[in-house]
Specification:
mainly alpha
């Protein structure tokens, strides 16, 4: 380890692909089936509302990132806007969210591989997947960008092919593969909102977590040339990305698969749609796509967790060891430290009592909403500081401060609503307790840092 700085190793095509494919995770291919089963065709409202929230949050984050690109992203902005305790707290919560996501993806990948090769133990396979995909983060950031470029390209091609296939079936261009269409399915299965509009709220909480990861591009752009331009491009493109990859693909599924199909939540929406269209080897096709999506997600999770840990260490909010980088400008200790926690969590899933891993997951269940809330509050504060300093960037949040306040109120309402929905109460409670504990640590850390600085200044003044 030779220094403590990163290098602009990501190329424009890397950042572009990250911005396009960053919101496409395994959740779209698998868990969208649960949301559709909950709300029926009205699930499209959940995706519209959630997508609009992500667009607004990305716009706010983009404004701050263009004004001051930083690999710590919203954690750094919270530090400047709200206080060091806020940057400390949201940074550690975000890191915790991503290191716990690593075993989830590894377990999903191991289950797919085990179905292909039953002789392989799933826990060994899961650990092997983590180690293998972490290797791309041990070298230069360009290596990570190259892996993510090809993973992202495959995901995009898969979704476009799926949309084209469904469109062809709906137009009667596929022989012996007739599908009903959304109008007929609604007429036969209870209409637009068969479970009532209240079911849309529950579906929104499911879809909310499918979008987490859109903000990663603002972290990665800090390691590219001309990060302000890259962030502007990525943020401007988030609208059509959500419309094409989420809204259009979900609309196609709703036109093919009945919302009350018992296999829908079991096998996932994409696979069930292919089965209904009599596409050969639908299970194998989706398994391959999901495996690649899982690999892409894990690759990004290790990268994102390590950069957040690196940023925390640079600001003195994490052990100094994690701020050092190799000659290739890679925060090797931060990558290794994040991966080790992911490995430990994976082992807990297989060898500890089942409730232990479930509790760990519940502590990160509402972190995505907390991150979005902090981004909105930070933008509200920093915009005024930028205006006072006369350094407001050309890329700005729309209708400030009204839309910013609308996002703050909406997220606050969603967090409160989660507590009153039994299925999400344990998550919001566990995440809330963890957040309170970390905030307390952040306040203590801030006071100690302030006291140390005061003592150093006093010692210097006496010399």
């Amino acid at each position: 380890m030779s220094n403590s700085s990163l290098a602009p190793g990501l190329k424009q095509r890397h950042v572009t692909m990250l911005s396009i494919a960053g919101v496409i995770g395994a959740g779209l291919f698998v868990f969208s089936g649960h949301a559709i089963a909950k709300a029926g065709p009205a699930v499209i409202l959940a995706y519209v509302f959630t997508g609009a929230l992500v667009v607004l949050v990305m716009r706010m984050l983009g404004e701050m990132a263009v004004a001051s690109p930083d690999t710590g992203s919203f954690s750094t902005y919270a530090d400047r806007a709200i206080g060091p305790w806020a940057g400390f707290s949201i940074g550690w919560l975000y890191w915790w969210f991503w290191v716990l996501a690593i075993p989830l993806e590894a377990i999903a990948a191991a289950n797919i591989i085990h179905a292909w090769v039953p002789a392989l133990d799933t826990w060994i396979t899961a650990l092997a997947v983590i180690v293998l995909l972490t290797c791309s983060n041990f070298f230069s950031v360009a290596r990570y960008g190259e892996f993510e470029f090809w993973f992202g390209l495959i995901k995009i091609v898969a979704i476009i092919a799926f949309i084209a296939l469904c469109a062809a079936a709906l137009m009667g261009l596929l022989p012996e593969r007739e599908v009903s269409g959304i109008g007929q399915l609604m007429a036969e299965h209870g209409g637009f909102a068969p479970n009532g509009l209240s079911a849309v709220i529950g579906a929104m909480l499911t879809t909310m977590f499918s979008f987490i990861g859109a903000e990663v591009v603002t972290i990665a752009a800090a390691e590219s040339k001309n990060p302000a331009r890259q962030i502007t491009r990525a943020t401007n493109s988030v609208v059509w990305r959500i419309c094409v990859f989420y809204l259009l693909s979900i609309l196609m599924i709703l036109s093919v698969v009945p919302w009350n199909d018992p296999r829908l939540p079991e096998v996932g929406s994409f696979q069930r749609a292919l089965e209904i269209m009599n596409i050969p080897n639908a299970n194998l096709v989706i398994d391959i796509v999901v495996l690649l999506a899982v690999a892409s997600c894990m690759n990004s999770q290790v990268y994102t967790a390590s950069r957040m840990l690196y940023s925390l260490a640079k600001r003195g909010d994490a052990p100094r060891l994690y701020k050092y980088t190799t000659k290739a400008n890679v925060p090797l200790a931060a990558v290794a430290g994040s991966t080790v926690i992911g490995i430990v969590a994976t082992c807990i899933n297989y060898f500890a009592p089942e409730n232990v891993f479930k509790f760990l997951l519940s502590t990160s269940g509402a972190v995505a909403l907390l991150v979005y809330l902090v981004i909105a509050i930070s933008q509200l504060c920093l915009r005024r500081k930028l205006m006072a300093a006369g350094t407001l960037p050309a890329f700005r949040m729309w209708l400030f401060p009204w839309l910013t306040w609308a996002v703050i109120l909406f997220i606050s309402g969603a967090l409160i609503g989660m507590f009153f929905i039994p299925a999400y109460r344990s998550e919001i409670t566990a995440t809330g307790l963890l957040a309170v504990m970390i905030i307390c640590l952040g306040v203590i850390h801030q006071r100690r840092t302030h006291a140390t600085s005061h003592q150093q200044r006093a010692a210097l003044s006496q010399r």
